[in-house]
Amino acid sequence: MKTTLLIMAAGIGSRFGGGIKQLEPVGLHGEIIMDYSIHDAIQAGFNKIVFIIRRDIEADFREIIGERIEALCKRLGVEVEYAFQALEDVPAGVTVPADRTKPWGTGQAVLAAKALIHEPFAVINADDYYGKEAFAALHDFLLRYTPERPNDLCMAGFILKNTLSDHGGVTRGLCQVENGYLTDIVETKNIVKTAVGAQANGKDLNPDGKVSMNMWGLTPEFLDTLEWGFNHFFETIGDDWQDGEYLMPIFIGDLLREKKVSVQVLESRDKWFGITYKADMPEVKENFLRLIQEGVYGEELFGDLV
Predict the structure, then answer these.
(1) Which ranges of 3-131 does DSSP label H, i.e. alpha helix?
(2) Which of 15, 81, 115, 190 is most buried, judging by how many CB atoms fall within 10 Å of its CB?
(3) Which long-range contacts (CB under 8 A, 24 or more apart) does 283-292 make?
């Protein structure tokens, strides 16, 4: 069965260089976090990759990332496609405010690839390291897809304390899980590490609780549901035209409360790495070096695949 990895990379800045966190080298030979995700996905069995980017960064993206990955994937028999997220891609009848500058969030980003996806697929962020275990678990779940169960979805569940930064607050989807299934998810901003665990806006959180890192396993039919949700988003946006976003965790949380989908939570014990702040970089590099020293990855990242 064909399975697709959808990488949300539209948030990469229009000027490439040391200031763009998705392109900060973290490996021994200049590898970026996205390289490790692609490696782990291909190793797990994914055989198609779709990059979601913006038109204004296409040439730079292809030069710095795309062409290199395309050459690798061609040798491995893995397809590569591009989809484009754009502020103006909204439902018929919707007028984009003249002073709005940013696109409409992760839900719109995934919808940008609707015409390219006809198979079960996983969604990830471009600048998060998820670990091999999560990709293997998602791929195994997606292989059980049948059109008769289009609303059976999954999510990689990470432990909150494994996803925090030492250098400031982060946003996470706090999850309620019962019998291995997601029952609720709340997008929560400004979660900070404390001496005993974690807090958000002065409220203590369970550091061992499950969180979403935007790593979803979805069905092709879900894209129709996501499109319906995008229309509904604009019908209910109220006065939030300037900052409103159509976000995957919020929409899926709404569907859960309406019992329209089931979301199995696939537990991952791997430690998440990410570059939320510039000061995170030394620790992230040290973590990747440790993984290489432990034999999780070779010094030549893709050497075990080609």
Answers:
(1) 33-44, 58-61, 67-76, 106-111
(2) 81
(3) 283/166, 284/26, 284/33, 284/129, 285/26, 288/26, 288/27, 288/31, 288/36, 288/129, 289/28, 292/27, 292/28
What's the rounded Cα separation, in Å, for the pair 280 and 22? 13
Q: Which two tokens stand for residue 290?
A: 């440790």
**Closest listed residue to residue 196, CA positions, set 185, 208, 211:** 208
pLDDT in tens, 177-228: 999 999 999 999 999 999 989 999 889 999 999 999 999 999 999 999 999 9
Calculate mean pLDDT across residues 298-306. Answer: 92
**Residues 1-53: pLDDT tens digits?**
899 999 999 987 654 444 577 778 899 998 999 999 999 999 999 999 999 99
The tokens for 135 are: 């990709």
Which residues are 55's β-sheet partners?
A: none
Determine the residue type at 3: T
CA distance 83 to 103: 14
Amino acid letter, residue 60: D
| Residue 85, CA distances (Å) to 51, 55, 116, 152, 210 in order | 10, 8, 13, 26, 29
Closest of 38, 219, 8, 176 to residue 107, by C-alpha: 8
Q: Is residue 83 within 8 Å of 41, Cβ to Cβ?
A: no
